[in-house]
Design a protein that fits this description.
The complex is a heterodimer of chains A (about 260) and B (about 150).
Chain A: H1 3-19, H2 24-37, E1 42-48, E2 51-57, E3 63-69, H3 77-93, H4 97-109, H5 116-133, H6 138-160, H7 165-185, H8 192-200, H9 206-217, H10 221-253
Antiparallel strand pairs in A: 1-2, 2-3
Helix pairs in contact in A: 1-2, 1-3, 1-4, 2-3, 3-4, 5-6, 5-8, 6-7, 6-8, 7-8, 7-10, 9-10
Chain B: H1 2-21, H2 27-46, H3 52-74, H4 79-85, H5 92-104, H6 107-145
Helix pairs in contact in B: 1-2, 1-4, 2-3, 2-4, 3-4, 3-6, 5-6
Classes of the chains: A mainly alpha (about 260), B mainly alpha (about 150).
Chain lengths: ~260, ~150
């Protein structure tokens, strides 16, 4: 058994899972199960949101450790499902390590993502539907859709520029709130409040918050508290961005 | 009828949109969208009995249970379905009004809405937590009671 290859396989699988937004306990369990399946009795993966440490002792008694630093990342459910699926197959079938390695590399090499127009279309549909959801009129929904489009574009551009989450949320919120207020001022939209809240839904840290709670529940306090702080900061950023736009429009029009 | 149908349909469309944003493919989109509208239906129905924090709690329990079932059926991580289906419950308007009161300098209303928003977020969390914990306990119970050779 080539334990170096096994180590890098386990660490890479854990890295892939964590990078696609898996919960902490899922990453730890997956690494542990994989190592057990390949005959390592003593394995101790330790995962926090931006670091993976895998350590095990080979049956010959040699201790091995690998550390992976995780940059900030989003959520990619499709990638998460594929990594999770691969992990289950590897644990059940235990193919030779080069084969397992190749299957892991194939997932990373063939990402299934939507093209930018489809993604922006999804932003428009999502935010416009939320405007209806909150009781808005058709005109509100159209305005919210345009604001959602602006959020989608600015998020994509800023992800491309590697901007941090706080600034991304603040700018997105400021932009969409400003547009919403302009729309209502020019008479295109009916309720600025509804449009802003609907466009908000593309920014609010609901996902981080739910994930954080799941981590706390699983006993991963460090991860949970980090993510709750993340969610609170993002919420603050959205509030600041919107407050900025409201203040600006009040200065402009003196409403 | 209209007061139920329109929000539920809107929740469906909204969740479908956000499922695409979180890179969910194929039938997963439909599952998320159904989960979102099911959760909102539960929210509206619970409105006959309770106020919004309890309504949110009921809806999040329904969504979490639905997501756990779907995850078992499709043998996928539960996260993907749960995260998107929970979207309609996220207190976006609470965050907005909190901010609005803060900008206006209305401290009393600010604190009031802020605590209420935290309550709503807490209700989502408690609902999800409750279902996940029960599912985990059930899994471990099954693990203990199943004979060793029968395990998969």
């Amino acid at each position: 058994m080539d334990y170096d290859a096994l180590m890098s396989l386990a660490a890479d699988l854990g890295y892939g899972l964590l990078a696609s937004g898996a919960e902490i306990y899922r990453v730890e369990e997956s690494i542990q199960r994989l190592l057990h399946a390949y005959g390592v009795a003593e394995a101790d993966p330790f995962v926090i949101p931006n670091c993976i440490i895998v350590s095990f002792t080979t049956p010959e008694g040699q201790a091995m450790t690998q550390v992976r630093r995780m940059p900030s990342h989003g959520t990619d459910v499709d990638l998460l499902e594929r990594y999770n699926d691969l992990c289950r197959h590897l644990c059940a079938e235990q193919p030779p390590l080069p084969v397992a390695r190749e299957r892991l590399d194939r997932i990373a090499a063939t990402p299934r993502t939507y093209s930018l127009p489809v993604l922006l279309g999804a932003y428009v549909v999502g935010t416009a539907a939320f405007a209806f959801f909150f009781g808005g009129t058709l005109r509100d929904a159209l305005c919210a859709g345009v604001c959602g489009l602006a959020i989608g574009l600015s998020l994509t551009a800023m992800t491309w520029l590697h901007t941090n989450l706080f600034f991304k949320s603040m700018l997105g919120a400021a932009l969409s709130a400003f547009m919403a207020l302009c729309f209502v001022h020019t008479g295109l939209g009916d309720h600025s409040e509804l449009i802003i809240i609907a466009a908000f839904m593309a920014l609010v840290p609901g996902i981080i918050f739910t994930n954080a709670i799941r981590d706390v529940m699983a006993g991963d306090m460090v991860a949970g508290i980090t993510k709750i702080a993340d969610a609170l900061l993002t919420g603050l950023a959205i509030a600041l961005g919107t407050a900025f736009s409201i203040g600006l429009t009040r200065l402009m029009w003196g409403v | 009828m209209e007061t139920i149908l329109i929000p539920v349909l809107a929740a469906f469309a909204a969740c479908a949109g956000f499922a695409v944003i979180y890179n969910i493919h194929g039938p997963g989109i439909l599952i998320c969208a159904l989960g979102g509208s099911l959760g909102w239906l539960a929210y509206l129905l619970a409105g006959a009995l309770w106020e919004d924090i309890m309504q949110t709690l009921c809806a999040s329990i329904v969504i979490a249970a639905y997501s756990e079932i779907m995850a078992r059926v499709r043998r996928c991580p539960v996260t993907g379905y749960l995260l998107v289906a929970i979207f309609p419950l996220v207190p976006g308007s609470g965050v907005y009004h909190t901010m609005e009161h803060a900008v206006n300098g209305d401290n009393e209303a600010f604190l009031d809405t802020f605590l209420h928003t935290l309550g709503l977020a807490g209700a989502i969390a408690v609902g999800v937590l409750l279902v996940s914990s029960l599912v985990r306990m059930w899994g471990i119970f099954r693990h203990h009671t199943t004979p060793k050779e029968g395990r998969t």
